[in-house]
TrEMBL record:
Keyword Oxidoreductase: yes
PANTHER family on file: SHORT-CHAIN DEHYDROGENASES/REDUCTASES FAMILY MEMBER (PTHR42760)
GO MF term list: L-iditol 2-dehydrogenase (NAD+) activity
The protein's Enzyme Commission number: 1.1.1.14
Annotated keywords: Oxidoreductase
Descriptive protein name: L-iditol 2-dehydrogenase
Entry-linked PROSITE patterns: ADH_SHORT
Alphabetical list of InterPro entries matching this protein: NAD(P)-bd_dom_sf, Sc_DH/Rdtase_CS, SDR_fam
Gene3D superfamilies to which the protein is assigned, alphabetical: NAD(P)-binding Rossmann-like Domain
Lineage per the UniProt record: Bacteria, Pseudomonadati, Pseudomonadota, Betaproteobacteria, Burkholderiales
One protein family per Pfam: adh_short_C2
Organism for this UniProt entry: Caldimonas mangrovi
Length: 263
């Protein structure tokens, strides 16, 4: 099916763009006509992003950014605006994962997860919202949450709490931005087959004494639709929420999880 150019000429900023969900959303936004600033931690773009720059040289530019640092967020925003003007769409995706039994979860793990998943998410969102208001843009912010933010898990306490915070900040920001016509929503993926799941599976294997790969198979079978999601499954929702088709949707976190969470 031909792409509909639903995001034609809109400037989209995608954080955590180098792999998995971020890369899938970046590709979808480009196909839909957006001009994209792709941001991730490495100083040079991932080969997949470099390949996209070759295909979309007038639409895509890469910025190295560490969202846990305020000065890095400022530099990212200046670079994005300098290339394509004010940001009209934010896909706020940068995040990290870790886990441990509750009594073994230390302050260092807590700080790492909250620095990126909560502080980084919030201050990137804040910077983009300020830019939207200054430019009088009725833009769209999409924060990446998780089904983990809908419940607690014994081994995943800090990550679950960080993603619950994403959902809460999404609601608060949506209410604050409604008078400006700016929409703020979230996406809560379920289990998605990304490179990060190799790390997740290895950690579950360690703490639950499972064979490598066993957890991944089990969580896929537990999804009502019977399989793990793909990054591209998140991209459709991300395009929809960024587009005019979602113009009356705000303060929502959309479950894209094969039926694992019902709300």
């Amino acid at each position: 099916m031909a792409d509909s150019q639903r995001l034609k000429d809109r400037h989209a900023l995608i954080t955590g763009a180098a792999g998995g969900i971020g890369l899938a959303v970046l590709e979808a936004y480009l196909r839909e006509g957006a001009r994209c600033t792709a941001a991730d931690l490495p100083s040079e773009p991932h080969p997949a992003i470099a390949g996209l720059i070759e295909r979309y040289p007038a639409q895509l530019h890469y910025v190295s950014a560490n969202v846990s640092l305020g000065e890095s967020i400022d530099a990212m925003m200046a670079a994005a605006r300098g290339r394509f003007g004010p940001v009209a769409v934010l896909f706020n995706n940068a995040a990290i994962f870790d886990m441990a039994p509750l009594l073994e979860s230390d302050e260092r793990m807590y700080e790492r997860l909250f620095d990126v998943n909560v502080k980084g998410m919030f201050f990137v969102m804040q910077a983009v919202l300020r830019q939207m208001i200054e430019a009088d843009l009725k833009g769209s912010v999409i924060n990446l949450a998780s089904q983990a933010g809908r419940r607690g898990e014994a081994l995943v306490s800090h990550y679950c709490a960080s993603k619950a915070a994403v959902i809460s900040y999404t609601q608060s920001a949506a209410l604050a931005m409604a008078p400006y016509g700016i929409r703020v929503n979230g996406i809560a993926p379920g289990v998605v087959d990304t490179p990060m799941w190799d790390q997740v599976d290895a950690l579950f294997a360690r703490y639950e004494r499972l064979a490598p790969g066993e957890k991944k198979v089990a969580v896929g079978k537990a999804v009502p639709l019977g399989y793990m999601g793909r990054p591209a499954d998140m991209a459709g929702a991300a395009v929809f929420l960024a587009s005019d088709e979602a113009s009356y949707i705000t303060a929502q976190t959309l479950n894209v999880d094969g039926g694992s969470v019902m709300s």
